[in-house]
Amino acid sequence: MEESEKRFRSLTESIPQLIWETDEKGNSLFVSGKWAEYTGILPEEQIWKSMIHPDDFDENMRVWSHSLATGEIYKCDVRIKRYDGIYRWHTVIGEPVFNDENKIIKWVGAFTDIHTEKAFTNELEQQVTARTKELSLMNESLQKSEERYHLMVEEVQDYAILYLNHEGIVENWNLGAQKIKGYKAEEIIGKSFSQFYTESDRKNNLPQKLLNLAIEKGKSSHEGWRVRKDKTLFWANVTLTAIHNKNNQIIGFSKMTHDLTEKKSADDKLKMNALELENKNAELEKMNQELQSFAYISSHDLQEPLRKIQTFATQIMEKESENLSDYGKDKFKRMQNAAQRMQTLINDLLSYSRTNVQERIFEKVDLGKIIAEVKEDLKEEIEQKNAKIENLKNCEANVIPFQFRQLLYNLVSNSLKFSNPENPIVIKINCQIAKGIVFNNEKLIPETNYCHIRIEDNGIGFEQQYSNKIFEVFQRLHGKLEYNGTGIGLAIVKKIVDNHNGIIKATGKLNKGAIFDIYIPVR
Asked: How far apart are CA 112 and CA 93, in angstroms?
């Protein structure tokens, strides 16, 4: 009887549930060792209100009081505070124990942690039911103790809990094992636990290897397919724990099995979806590359016939001008202007395509040098418009040099183009390196260093509602008669910023000016 009691005590301590027992009035009689380990509160210090989440306490006490008054099964979901102060969801189930006179003499039950299951599916609930047996008056002290621990193990039905002897022969079988594996106790007790394993696992001697590992380490765990009585398979998590006697000799093993078939199915489905998404993304990337190549080649091939149109029109205007009427000259002039606009559009389309198809080689560059090159390229237009460009501060960043030169060229050129004729043109370029948290932009990663480039002008600006639209291809806020252009320049800027894994933000005030803020990760 003592060995039997020790065995059931060991089984109780090896399961993850928090086992408890109270008298008929709800006063604590017994809690398993897991209580102190889990809550950090010793059994004699059990204070229910300090363990249960304040939002759950009143409802829990209402259900518990109702059960005490009516004798109905006590069941409730509550959040229990762990030793580290974190609350985790538990299902608590308690069931009354009756004497021969059909009076309640005590309550037994368990708290089962269901926090992980709730987080994973948001709907799984751990079902724990309680079954009781009448207490026998024979050998009152030891017999009652054995029955108490036996009852605690029996009530857990979502886990198959077995006791194996030192050779791996089943000696105890709970209702959870019957529910999961399909065998009744009389069908399996006295047989080796290896028959729950697949033929392949038995050939590889997996059951014995798990026993050996438990002997060596004290515990062994494994996940894999197991076989039910009806030969169907289920995915299980198995834990074997070695049980020792007073002389530290192994007398057997507790074996706990959790059916994870539904979780396995969900995980496999997620993996399949992820693989399918990866394949779709690869197909999309290939299609994008093909489209970019098509746009580049098409734009390139359009230039030859366009050059001939421009050449022939120019030759006719130069050599046959006297033979043309004023009407004919006007039409030829319009044709030349249209061809020139078409040439500009094709060049911009080629630039846009190059930002995708060209090799991206990052170099650490002094942005001040790139700004100086852009100012030199736009020297005539700057002098013509008497514009002033203030380069307030320089910094170094890892960029694709030729692309970043195109970016700054387009932005400065835009500031010159959309200037306010009533104001002297002033373009300010500033640069700063700092962590994302310093800048007022929620899209930046707080602890990542960024190179912030700001281009600010005092031109005609724009209404803030168009701050995103201006970066779209062929989007223009002004007619072509007011300002020449193709509507691709800022789209190229946006694409270059994307190539640098950066962010660009446009801020404008009508007739006050525009600000472009660019954030490029330093590395």
From this structure: 9
| Helix axes 367-377 and 401-417, enclosed angle (nearest 10) | 50
Measure the CA angle with vertex 26, ends 23 and 28; round to 5°.
Answer: 70
How far apart CA 104 and CA 131 sit, in angstroms, is 14
Residue 464 DSSP SS3: helix
Length of the chain, in residues: 523
Going by C-beta distance under 8 Å and a sequence separation of 6 or more, which residues neighbour residue 176?
A: 156, 157, 158, 159, 160, 161
523 residues of the chain, pLDDT tens digit each: 778 767 766 776 777 788 888 888 888 887 877 777 888 877 665 565 678 888 988 898 899 899 999 999 999 998 888 888 889 888 999 999 998 888 999 998 888 888 877 666 555 454 444 444 554 555 554 555 555 555 555 555 567 777 888 888 888 777 777 778 888 888 888 888 888 888 888 899 988 898 899 888 888 888 888 888 888 888 888 888 888 887 888 888 888 888 888 888 888 888 888 888 888 888 877 776 766 666 666 555 666 677 777 787 788 877 887 888 888 878 878 787 777 767 666 666 666 566 655 567 788 888 888 888 888 888 888 888 899 988 877 788 888 888 888 889 889 988 888 888 888 999 999 998 889 888 888 888 888 899 999 999 998 888 888 888 888 765 555 545 455 555 677 888 888 898 888 999 999 888 888 999 999 998 7
What's the CA gap between 387 and 41, in Å, rounded? Answer: 76
State both tokens at 281: 């993304």
Q: What is the pTM of this model?
A: 0.40
- d(CA 254, CA 86) in angstroms, rounded, equals 29
Beta strands in 166-218 (DSSP E): 170-173
Output b/e per residue, 179-211; b: 16+ Cβ within 10 A: ebbbbeeeebeeebbbebbeeebbeeebbeebb
C-alpha distances in Å from residue 290, one per residue of 8, 283, 346, 353, 494: 69, 11, 18, 11, 21
Instruction: Phi first, then psi: give them for residue 447, nearest 5 degrees.
Output: -95, 5
Cβ proximity of 444 and 519 under 8 Å: yes
Written as six digits, the tokens of 20 are 């408890």
Cα within 13 Å of Cα(349), Cβ side = 20
Give the C-alpha separation, 61 to 20, whole Å.
Answer: 16
Per-residue DSSP letter, 168: S
The answer to whether 220 touches 201, Cβ cutoff 8 Å, is no
